[in-house]
Batch of 2 targets.
Target 1
Amino acid sequence: MNEFELIARLTQSLPTNPNVVTGAGDDCAVLDFGLPDQWLLFKTDAIVEGIHFTKDTPPEKIGHKALARCLSDIAAMAGTPTAALVTIALPPGFDVKFIEAIYAGLSALAQKHGVAIVGGETTTNPGGILISIALLGSVPRGRAVLRSGAKAGDAIFVTGELGGSLAGKHLEFEPRLAEARWLAEHFSVHAMIDLSDGLAGDLRHILKASRVGAELLKPAIPISRAAKLRAKEGSRTKSPFAAALADGEDFELLFTVAGADAVKLLDAWKKQFPKLKLSCIGKITAGEGVTIRDQTGVQPLTAHGYVHFA
Amino acid sequence: MNEFELIARLTQSLPTNPNVVTGAGDDCAVLDFGLPDQWLLFKTDAIVEGIHFTKDTPPEKIGHKALARCLSDIAAMAGTPTAALVTIALPPGFDVKFIEAIYAGLSALAQKHGVAIVGGETTTNPGGILISIALLGSVPRGRAVLRSGAKAGDAIFVTGELGGSLAGKHLEFEPRLAEARWLAEHFSVHAMIDLSDGLAGDLRHILKASRVGAELLKPAIPISRAAKLRAKEGSRTKSPFAAALADGEDFELLFTVAGADAVKLLDAWKKQFPKLKLSCIGKITAGEGVTIRDQTGVQPLTAHGYVHFA
């Protein structure tokens, strides 16, 4: 049983109440507290020593990553983050300066995005450092972008370049908050997710929630310099293209808009965000599954996203 | 450096914003999202294998405890819980049935208090199981009961009986949500906290936040049957009274009201909650520190609450 199968089993019959707009299964939970113009977004995310960072990771970057991952989930709903709680679980004999540096990284990113850090907790964790962030944000009422709205004929877009995040980006990425809000304000975004498990895996989350398929255009998929460099080094068997499909922790936005909006969006994006690439990488289809088109034709996509427990 | 000193150092200069009513340092953070009649309450709490439960703890009780601790913090603000996110960090090779049973315990308690479980996360934690709960609730606007409102002359009250929680109560306690809301609706509660670190320690949190002192009445402090039994067993040097002062995880409410309200409160409480003891255990003083009065006179209180890193 992998992570997704476990979650599916655990979330089958969770208690709910009238405040819940969207519960488990999207980038954030969406809650209605009766605000006339807003819904609330609620999210937690944890990073663990030995998995998401190592003993050698600079502590400021650990703090940055812990919060940035959660902010990226708020971005994936086209929301605005408001307040965070920080849980740090530490092995006995922790180094106070190290923890302060984690907080410095967290605080700098929080400040940048107007997020208040309103408390948290330290506790003991014998196996290593674990940091869990709980984040509260908001989105204009009725305007949260879910995973479930993709429609056949939609154009599929991705920001930035993909693959090779482990070379450094996973510790330094900027959550695409401003970009996501701009998108939702200016275009009808049908479905959106942030790329944490890899394009192939995360696209499947959209397809499953929306009950559609997709056809990707191989030459359109933006491959990062890091993915290309690592392939050149010959240190791994993965091609740069396979890395762009399957590597985790890109933290770019993957979203769909009606095919008719695609060209207009690309033009407007270039003016608004000239430094960040936006790529139209394929289209949503009425069928099931993912196919990939290149010069030689169309094939089913077999590459898988990173699955935590696999 | 103990847990409280570390937290004090980390929370000295956290980023804030206009949504924050009360940040780090109370039982919950209090946030203003512009609701005309409500503030939001935001809290996280984590429990760790080997510290808060063991390999032999029935998993349903682990789930119950994880959520009940957080609910108890909402109670300490006189609030109502709304939605929870659940983070479970597991060693490799986890037992799915065990995790499902944790969720069953969590869900049963959530259902009882109308709390929706709106998602969460599973991740890997090499050292053992860690469960972190993030909880969102609400409180009538302007009516959150903080730690900082105690005044000289206030009567100090505690619900239930104290000490010996480790004998079983820490896994089964009922968070005092209904009691706290009733208190805040019917009386002017000046300060409140839930007892997690022990009466002596948690009272000091109120005193420090309110810049006052306290005098406790030794014979008035309610000692649990478990604390008395354990002392009889001779398995530890602590007296039942010392256990009632210093044992952690009672999860009862400790609060103050004006001295003039004390008798009226005791009478009304007996009618409203005939099965739950309420004890007036002393008074708030203008000075500093805690003294304790018995037949022989008044002495400074030297017993300390449980300190996690000590």
Target 2
Amino acid sequence: MSDNTQIILVERPNGPLKESHFEIRHGEVPKPGPGEALVRSILLSQDAANRAWMAGATYKSAVNPGDVMHGYAVCEVIESNSPDLQPGQLVQGQAGWQQYAALPANALQRCADHRPLTRLLSIMGIAGKTAYHGLLNVSGIEAGETLLVSAAAGSVGSIVGQIGKIKGARVVGIAGGAAKCAWVRDELGFDACIDYKSAEMATALTEHCPDGIDVYFDNVGGDILQSAIFNMKYGGRISCCGAVSQYDGGPPTSPIGIPGLLVIKSLRMQGFLLMDFMDRDADAERDLSTWSDSGQIVIAEDVIEGLENAPRGLIGLLAGENRGKRMIRVGPDPS
Amino acid sequence: MSDNTQIILVERPNGPLKESHFEIRHGEVPKPGPGEALVRSILLSQDAANRAWMAGATYKSAVNPGDVMHGYAVCEVIESNSPDLQPGQLVQGQAGWQQYAALPANALQRCADHRPLTRLLSIMGIAGKTAYHGLLNVSGIEAGETLLVSAAAGSVGSIVGQIGKIKGARVVGIAGGAAKCAWVRDELGFDACIDYKSAEMATALTEHCPDGIDVYFDNVGGDILQSAIFNMKYGGRISCCGAVSQYDGGPPTSPIGIPGLLVIKSLRMQGFLLMDFMDRDADAERDLSTWSDSGQIVIAEDVIEGLENAPRGLIGLLAGENRGKRMIRVGPDPS
């Protein structure tokens, strides 16, 4: 336990992320200070926002060259200098791309021993809760409404659409490639899925949302957001979850017609972060576990083995190769 | 009563509006058809949105060359073919820039005989209600919050800031020119007012909103909206009421960082139209009349005599020459 494998960001990417922006190092396992705990990473979340963290400060501080790459992980407490945590407990927090981290106990959240532990990042974790709060508490959705979801095969989008169906909406996804679109329709049960790589978006939206869009759940920003705004119904709502088209060297575009189109169509655009809804997490956990236990939600997980594969995993995620929630298995489950 | 003075839009403006885009004609007083009423205009509202109507369809059909210019007016019913309206009653609706109009009775709204009748367009009408609903029912405002209001000397902005003060907010206005800014501060009671013609906006916002902006009430769009977005607090709200910087040949800009900044700061941007809140108009009327009767709101009206001055009035409004609610007196009050 003296070796701590770490992945360092060695250069700030200016354009598409590459493996050469990272370096593997073998550091020492840290000693936890007063009030800190030493944790061992089990599963590391991979999210498009990880790329945005490299560009500068966002809702958290930037990742700078020389830093261990930041990342959210499910961990086991190994040693604790805080009365709040005991060895063997499961926690989650910003442990970074490394095997071991010493973190203040109050920066770690206890989590239930929910097996398989992958669920703590997929349906019962960051993906499921982001989808739940972003759809139900940001935009809202009513039975009979038309819901458009971009990155529909991704970790959040795949769940948003399924919750939309449970709530009685007509759900249209957007994803890249015929195979992913078929999966979104056939396995996840969306009513339709537009392949943005082959379809002309304006035509496709007119075809699949002939009466306009009530709710657009936006994971991508850019041109697709623009097309959606043009096709929103009067009084429509846009839940702004992310802008993956902008993160990895994509052109920094903003939709035209802001604020004019918001005014004349009485549209609401609302950004959010998962942490805004901590006080309603119990609702999310209750509903998400009911829906997944009953099979109403198909759980899609994409687990890559080995911390050394984290750079490749994130690069692939930004290129859209994942289906459902991508994560890295850093170490074994506790027995 | 056989002559009906009308102002016609004779050319679609492509750039700043000029008097030459209009022509005065003398038509006939129309005969109301079945279900219609003949109305006589008393006071004609002038609003920045009038200019946007000339560019194309918005929340209503476009004004096209050859049309009587569209406009919202307080009128007296002269003759009625509908059981719902009687001669002598006061109504408001889209009567256009003309002395007489024949309109379907169901397109006209009855209004109280509230003297002076100018109040029906200012504090108790389109200006006051837009300010009320846009601030209280779109963005919301809490005591202790910082409220930024653009076009602060305008019909809506001047009231928004005063309602903000009543609700206990710290209110910072933005207006053009030192004299207007002094009026906004000294007469309307805003805490501060930034002169966008002389101040560097980023510096001024840092100075006057050092802890950031909780609520931005946007009447202008463009560069000021951009600066406001950069200075919004986490969880801030933007009430999108209009985009006057874009209407009159201004560059059609959109703020950069959409949706990224909305996501990382959990911002909400919401467009609205007055008609969205018809079911809550009674609340607005009750509160606005209380506040104006008690002197808590200073009523600012800018009345221009004579329909023939409507083109000049609108051109001046787009250039920001008005203080408070601009309107045209087309004819005398009913006795």
